Every structure is written in C-alpha cells, then in structure tokens.
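ok trying this again, last paste got cut off
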Amino acid sequence: MLNTELQMSITTIETWSDLDLKNHVFLNLVDEINQVITPLITYFGLDSFNFHKTYNDDSQIRLSNTPNWYHYYLTNKLYQQSIFELPAYHYSKTRLIWSNIDTHNVILKEASQFGIKYGITLVEPVSDGCEFYFLGTTSNDQTVINKYLSNFHLLEKFITNFKNSGKQLLSLAEQHKIIAHDWQLNKLTFTPIHNIERIAFLASIYGFEFTSRELECVPLLLKGLSSKQIAERLKISFRTVEVYIENLKRKTGTYNKKELIYLLDEKFN
C-alpha cells in the first residue's frame, strides 16, 4: 500500500545531486510503476518509463522505473541539455520520436549505456503546468517504432489511464515537489513550434500579418501572462512587449487588451 498521508511541500535545492536520490520517493516506486505500465510492456515492448511534470512555478515531480538511469541523468546534469526541461509555458501538445531530436544525441548515447534505446516522448500541457511521458524500450528491435507510430491513439488512452490508475503515485510524488536552481541554466530554446506554426497558419487564413515575435506573444497572452511576464519569458524589454501588443491590436482591429485577448481566444484556441 502506498502511504499518501504526507504533507505536501516544495524543497528548493541548488542542483539535483544535492538530494539523496537513491532513497528519494521519485526513484523508489518501481514495482508500483511497473504495475501501471504493464499494458505498455506487454503490447508495445515499452519497458522503460520515465515521467516528470513541470509546474507553472518551475517546481517538478519525477517518477521512474529505471532508477539507475534516472539517477545518472540527474546527477550528471543531463537535464541542462534536454529540450523537455524548460518552463512549462514553452510547450504545446507534442509527440516526438527520440531519434528525431537533434539536440539529444548525448542523452540518447548515455541512455543506451543503461539499455534504453528507441522511444517516444509524449508532451501533455495541463492547466497547472506540463507533463512529459518518456516511453522507451530496451529491445534491439527497431520495428517497435513503427508499432507505436501507427498506434498513437492507444498511447493517448494510456495517458488517460495513467492519470487514473496512477493517481496514488502522482499524489505521493506531488508531496515532494522540487525546485532546482541550476535547472534554469538550460540554454536550449524550445519555441512551441507546433503551437506557433498552428497560430501562424490560422493568422494567414484570417489575413493577419503578424511578425514572428508578435506570434510568440499570442500563446502567452492566451495563457493570461502580463506584459512584464511575457517580457521575462521572451527575454525582451517590457516596452517592446507593449509595442507588440499595440501592433496586435492594430492588426486585429481591436481597441484594448481585453478585446484583443477575447479575439485571440476565439480565433486561435
């Protein structure tokens, strides 16, 4: 039985190696995780499962059934080289085959030393952050990739089921949220490509000629971020953001920020 009668807390650390990871709850629920992911193992051969959730306040939780690999990943600061280790607002719903991620060559090479080879990452934005499901296999059979590529709908069903059958696991992990300061040293950029491309496509249909920077502001406005927060996210000045918003209002024929956001929500959500 899992003991979930613990007080929720957030621990702030400088680096993940500051934790006693080998004894931390994140890496010590292997049997419980394997019970939940049995269908993945049985039908897809996806026997490596790693999960993390990044909350809107940059705190994180993690779960793994490959603790040796995840311990290595965290203590060697490989999270500073991952496009999946950025603030939650960066992401839209995405499915990425590991071999297609150019920036992950080092991580994939290191993971292979632990027997983890072919896999896929499912990125799921949620209201309080973003969830990441890393589904991998220790099999040498490359045809497994074709199997899950042609069965995305089943993997979607798995996510829904995991949130239900794995509710206790998630609840227990949530009681031990971590904020690691050096996590923010990740210098990779992951502009929400799918989201931006979708918005750019729709903008062209509606006849809105937004610049690339104005397009980047749209999903952030829709998330309710202030001009100051958008400036921090995009690493530009507050005044520049205000100019972009004025341009968006002019181009959409709206007269104030509230009206602009209403129109953006109607057109792009």
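PB: full thing came through this time. DSSP finds twelve helices and seven strands in the chain.
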